[in-house]
Specification:
Layout (H helix, E strand, L loop, with lengths): L5 E5 L6 H8 L10 E6 L14 H4 L5 E5 L5 H8 L10 E4 L10 H22 L3 E6 L3 E2 L13 E2 L1 H15 L6 E6 L1 E3 L7 H15 L3 E3 L10 E3 H18 L1 H8 E3 L5 H4 L13 E7 L7 H11 L4 E3 L2 H10 L3 H21 L15 H4 L9 H7 L10 H14 L11
Pfam family, one: Epimerase
Protein name: NAD-dependent epimerase/dehydratase domain-containing protein
InterPro entries: Epimerase_deHydtase (IPR001509), Lipid_A_modif_metabolic_enz (IPR050177), NAD(P)-bd_dom_sf (IPR036291)
């Protein structure tokens, strides 16, 4: 029997779990785990979500197993915790579940985010797993000034933010669960086709192709938008699992427990499964961001620089209209009209043509809205001893993303557009 942990990853095939899998079972190098099972709603044969060119190769490793399952069903969740015959029970659980689309209504978020987390957490507690690491997206709004540690109360943003936060509260309420929560910044890296930074990179390429500046909607204030490379997300969940496994929930709460703030009562009261709003909930909580302290301006400058253009801001009239209409559908369509068409042109002009790509130049409301993400990552460094692998948001990391997409035929290579 191997003395390496056995890992079960739930969800995140369309966000981070592919990268975490590559970290745990690298193509070249020794695996960190004795076995790895990934469970999600998507099919991989044939794929019903983007997989990238790396992940299918890793699935060929005999240590790795993929299961397609409906995690809203309690019996199916329990079944997924049962290891293959002759294999020891799973040691670590990594929970990447939850609906990431911003336009899903409350009922969908309750079912797909909060209730799935509850089913997984309750089953993990029954199985007495040594560590349960929940990754929380940056669906929060922090104050613009300074960076904010885990003790500070920050507000969940929108329907998505409310129910992702409620999933954290639900898990924190399960006393016997060896839970640790990792709250991440804006994530990016090879094969990551989800999120603000991926969308920004794609649109910047379009404006580079058109030889025009890319423009932001919001005035150049502080506007922190802290970033984190997916390599560090992967390394952090692994480090936190090992940390929790040596301590257990009670001691981990003593060392790193934080009060999990109450949600918007008007939104969550009387909803089945929501913990008592008067109950104090405590769980180990850590932030993870890089050391760059990125802002809207610094990200825009770095990304556009990769494609030979510049970053600026829309005129006063446009920004005033956005403030007045709060990103109405017509404003969003006006903003997208030029660069979406040019992205299609780039696909067609590419040599060879790009016939299939997971990337889109369309920027929806969740991408265009003003956001402030200003986290302090001192706690995970000081308490766990975690060291960042990619401490800076650098142009070279963005170039690596583009090159990986080019290699698999997902990124266009058009001739230079004439002026």
């Amino acid at each position: 029997m191997s003395d390496k942990p056995s890992v079960l990853i739930f969800g995140g095939l369309n966000t981070w779990s592919r990268s975490v899998t590559a970290f745990l079972v690298p193509e070249d190098g020794e695996a960190l785990v004795s076995s790895l099972r990934i469970v999600d709603k998507f099919s991989v044969h044939p794929p019903t979500t983007y997989l990238g060119s790396q992940f299918p190769k890793i699935l060929e490793n005999p240590l790795v197993e993929y299961k397609q399952a409906n995690l809203t069903v309690a019996a199916m969740v329990s079944k997924m915790f049962d290891p293959p015959e002759g294999q020891a029970p799973y040691t670590y659980i990594f929970d990447f579940t939850g609906e990431v689309r911003h336009d899903r209504p409350d009922m969908v978020q309750q079912q797909q985010t909060m209730n799935v987390a509850r089913l997984l957490g309750e089953e993990a507690a029954r199985r007495d797993v040594k560590a349960y690491v929940r990754v929380s997206h940056p669906y929060y709004e922090t104050p613009e000034k300074g960076s904010h540690d885990e003790k500070e109360s920050i507000k969940p943003v929108g329907v998505r933010g409310i129910w992702w936060h409620e999933a954290t509260r639900v898990l924190a309420s399960i006393e016997k669960l060896n839970l640790v929560v990792l709250r991440i910044g804006l994530c990016y890296g090879p094969y990551i086709d989800y999120g603000v930074l991926c969308s920004t990179l794609t649109v910047a390429a379009v404006y580079g192709y058109m030889k025009k500046p890319m423009k932001g909607l919001w005035s150049p204030g502080k506007n922190s938008m802290n970033t984190v490379h997916v390599d560090d997300v992967a390394a952090a969940v692994w480090a936190l699992a090992g940390w929790m496994a040596t301590l257990g929930r009670l001691e981990a709460n003593t060392i790193a427990g934080e009060d999990i703030q109450t949600n918007d009562k008007s939104k969550v009261k009387d909803v089945e499964g929501v913990p008592d709003l008067s109950t104090k909930l405590v769980a180990p909580l850590f932030n993870i961001v890089d050391d760059t302290q990125s802002t809207l301006v610094s990200i825009g400058t770095e990304v556009t620089g990769l494609f030979g253009t510049t970053f600026g801001f829309h005129d006063f009239f446009t920004t005033t209209m956005v403030k007045l209409t709060k990103l109405s559908e017509s404003v969003i369509e006006d903003i997208n009209e030029e660069h979406v068409g040019a992205w299609v042109e780039m696909m067609q002009a590419s040599n060879p043509p790009v016939v299939k790509t997971p990337l889109s130049a369309y920027m929806d409301e969740s991408i265009l809205q003003k956001m402030t993400i200003a986290y302090s990552a001192n706690k995970i460094k000081n308490v766990v001893g975690f060291q960042l692998k990619r401490p800076k948001f650098e142009r070279a990391h963005l170039q690596e993303m583009v090159e990986k997409w080019k290699e698999e035929g997902s990124w266009p290579n058009p001739p230079e557009k004439s002026s």
